[in-house]
Amino acid sequence: MGKTIQETNTVPVYEECDVLVVGGGAAGHSAAIAAARAGAKKVIILERYGYFGGDVTGGYVIMIPTMSWYNKSFVRGLQEEWFTRLDKSAPGSYICPSLKEIGDTSPVLIDRWSLIHGCTSMWAENKRLVRAPYYEPNQLKIELDLMVQEEPNIKVMFHCWATKPVMDGNVVKGVFFESKEGRHVVLSKITIDATGDGDIFAQAGAPFLGQRDASTRVDKTALVWRMGGVDFEAYARWARQFPKENASFRDELAKIAGFRTAVLPTERNDVVWFNNFLPSKDCIKIKDLTATELEVRTSIRATIDFCKRAIPFAFRDAFLYDIAPQLGARCSRRLDGEHVMTQLDVATAAKFDDVIAWHSIVGPMNDSGPVELPYRCILPKKVENLICPGRHLAADEIIIDTLLLIPQCVGLGQAAGVAAAVAVNDGTTAHKVDIKKVQRILSEEQDVPLPRQRNTDPEMVQLCEDHHYGIMNERAKKIRAAAGLDW
Ligand SMILES: Cc1cc2nc3c(=O)[nH]c(=O)nc-3n(C[C@H](O)[C@H](O)[C@H](O)COP(=O)(O)OP(=O)(O)OC[C@H]3O[C@@H](n4cnc5c(N)ncnc54)[C@H](O)[C@@H]3O)c2cc1C
Asked: Quick one: fold of 11-217+331-482?
């Protein structure tokens, strides 16, 4: 260790609450709303920036994959509520197959939607329509504000950066935070770490995992930007007709940018977004964060010039539309929780008594079939009264790539909020919470489909069984065989 400086000060308590949510991304926003709706009397949500959504709005991650499987919508709850609300308040601010269309296999619809990545099934031989919304991030930002403002039990504290937990032995009692008003504390009965990077659980003494597999997307950082003045459909039809030429275009694009980059659609045909992948960068390292910002911005002008030259019929009038206000953070610390989700859990369609989300996922090893996520994958070992939903959930270094996507962050956040409200109202702890009550509230009051509940849709169960949970493919077979499991 280099030079150190001793620090001793008395820190004033700014607020006290029942449930404190640290971080207002997909997971944190959902946790706060769900806690308030489940009866928590005072919820505080503390966020370092000035808006909700994290990666989803500020990072311009503007596509939510795989909310349905065949003709059933597995990802509902707050995730689907974003879109039922946008339908009314901002029509046209997102595109994807409607709930009525999911599972449809008619060739005309397949032809139209297969131009939009994720809106048709990715692995099945018989293509079918999938609910995978592409949305305008600033419209969603406004909607997320409205959802919170409608809940009188939630107090919002923007521009407050949580620095460390307040500990009493192994029990989390709130957090210290920095703001323009100085250093303060918020005290809470239950704290939800939804920072995405485990900022709170890491300092509370909960075990966590670090490395990701270098082959995964989540080992890479990004700074998303959008290009206007394009004809996306013209590009997509060309790419489908000439896959080799498109592969060369993408290789050249990566050379020019200096990293892999992907042209993706938006809700408008004349705007595309550039997702990008800067390899082996850690989104909690100052050096890597700084490099990501500088490298991506430096690459933008050359990328636009190249697109104009390479595919003029689609990009002739292209221009820089905007750059995401915040860097895209994928994965840093992962919780080493009470249960760590593994590839095998997905490849065997594992069942959990404490299931809190039952989601169709982006699943190369299960044809995007539904997966059960247990409460224990957001519950830390050793530390009490802390729940940790979001992209830092407990998952192995490969399956994290699949499970940190937006629907899973929203679903786990929603469940964490309900669990926190139940624990506080029953006067118990995060570890001892009545999980049956949590499941009942989620499935009966908060529109979250869960297996083995009183109101579980028998058609969903039948669908899973008819299609063997999607796990009879070669990839899943290999994983089971390696683990010595026959099926
Ligand atoms: C470029 C990119 C492309 C992606 N593509 C897709 C995709 O197409 N589809 C998909 O579903 N997923 C995609 N993902 C993954 C997905 O976007 C994220 O995993 C998910 O949005 C994470 O949500 P979260 O709430 O867990 O974390 P975040 O969105 O990171 O939210 C964390 C929040 O906490 C705040 N915060 C952090 N630390 C503190 C602190 N100490 N104090 C106070 N506030 C704090 C942050 O400001 C932020 O608002 C992508 C991710 C990236 C980066």
From this structure: FAD/NAD(P)-binding domain (3.50.50)
| Ligand 1 mutation pick, 61, 96, 160, 323, max ligand atoms within 8 A of CB | 61
Counting ligand 1 atoms within 8 A of each CB, the residue from 405, 408, 410 with the most, and so the one to mutate, is 405
List the chain domain ranges: 11-217+331-482, 221-323
DSSP class of 428: -
Contact 368, 123 (CB under 8 A): yes
Tokens of 195: 């920072």
Question: Atom of ligand 1 at shortest distance to CA of 118?
Answer: 8
Q: Does residue 330 have its Cβ closer than 6 Å to ligand 1?
A: yes
Cα–Cα distance for residue pair 379/382, rounded to 1 Å: 10
pLDDT of residue 487: 65
> 124 falls in which pLDDT band (50, 70, 90)?
low
Tens of pLDDT, residue by residue over 446-467, are 999 999 999 999 999 999 999 9
**The predicted structure's pLDDT at residue 211:** 73
Which residue matches tokens 């709303």?
33
